[in-house]
Amino acid sequence: MTLSSSPKPDEGSPTISLQTHDEAKLLVLRKQPVSPYNDDFRFQVEVGSPTVHGTGPFQISVRQLRHFADAHEKSIEGELQDENGDGTIQFEKADALGHFKVVTRLGGPWSDQVQVAFGTDQTATTAFVEDLRYLLR
User: Fold this and answer.
1) Nearest one of 11, 1, 96, 85 to 47, comparing CA atoms
2) Which pairs with CB-CB distance under 8 Å and at least 24 residues apart come from 67-75?
3) What DSSP state is assigned to residue 10?
4) What is the pTM for the complete model shown?
5) pLDDT tens per residue, range 9-38
6) If 0-12 CB within 10 Å is exposed, 13-18 middle and 19+ buried, where does residue 31 land?
7) Is 123 strand, coil or helix?
8) 32-89, pLDDT tens digit by residue?
9) What pLDDT is attached to residue 32?
């Protein structure tokens, strides 16, 4: 099943990908032009698991992105919230061996969302957060 709340993004956009080493597990943030109204980062998010695939817009404030990256260094877990909707990207620690559950919700109100979850490990989440932190430079 594929769900989409907006048109396909420009394939030339800078991207940040969660490297899961499994093509069926996908989390990609394609950077979009800066908003004329604020300094928030805007992305087109593509997320997928073996059975569900979705895309949608996602906006993250500079403050929130900095907090997420700092929190990840301390506890490895964290959550990003869409500034313009009810979407979230969560990294939840699954066990003491470095396994994580990635849960992504895209869309508008809770009744009109796609939720995709899959497992990965801390090597993927750490590199993903480092790539996000690079945007803050």
Assistant:
1) 1
2) 68/129, 68/132, 69/129, 69/132, 69/133, 69/136, 72/125, 72/126, 72/129, 73/129
3) P
4) 0.85
5) 445 568 999 998 898 999 999 999 987 888
6) middle
7) helix
8) 998 788 889 999 999 998 888 889 999 999 999 999 999 888 877 889 999 988 899 9
9) 94
